[in-house]
Amino acid sequence: MRLYAHRANLTGPGTGENKPESIRECLERGLGVEVDIWDHGGELWSGHERPQWKIDLQLLSHPGVICHAKHVTAAVALRSTTVSFFCLERDEFALCSNGLIWANYGCVPTAASIMCSPELVGETEPIEHFHTRVTEAHGICTDYPLRYLELITL
Fold first, then answer.
1. How far, in Å, CA of 58 to CA of 64, rounded?
2. What is the pairing mode between strands 32-40 and 43-46?
3. 35 pairs with which residues across the strands?
4. What is the pTM of this model?
């Protein structure tokens, strides 16, 4: 199972938050990374609520990175690259450009799904229980990938 650091967070919300150096750290640790991407003046920027950091296309093209296009012009810009991305607003799931399925919490896990961990939507299911329940999924996206790594190696 592949672990994806939500917004490049390693130990909880706000610990990475789409910063290029945090993305690199996650990749160096062997984790996948979900990054929020904006088109700003014809350039790609990362950031959750707004464009904050101009980001290198080479970094986003890493096979461990999957981008969340935060608006339609970001999706259009990403479409002409080799970057893996998805567009999701309020849907239960979204098809990613690389063929995987980005699945919100509560969606049925499949071998092609990257499952959003409970804390991403304010659910209280313990991650130990969630991890056991979605073992057949391709991956998990979480703000706590280091905790999940502990579970996997126990």
1. 12
2. antiparallel
3. 67
4. 0.96
Inter-CA distances, 92 with 65, 120, 144, Å? 21, 14, 22
Q: What is the pLDDT of residue 31?
A: 98
What per-residue confidence (pLDDT) applies to 154? Answer: 62
Q: Where are the alpha helices (DSSP H) in the chain?
A: 20-28, 57-60, 72-79, 127-133, 145-153
Stated as kind and residue range, the H or E segment containing 107 is none
Domain count for the chain: 1
Q: d(Cα 140, Cα 80) in Å, to the nearest integer?
A: 27
Structural domain span for residue 40? 2-153
Calpha distance 145→142 (Å, rounded): 6
The CA distance from 22 to 131, in Å, is 24
CA gap 53, 152 in Å, rounded: 32
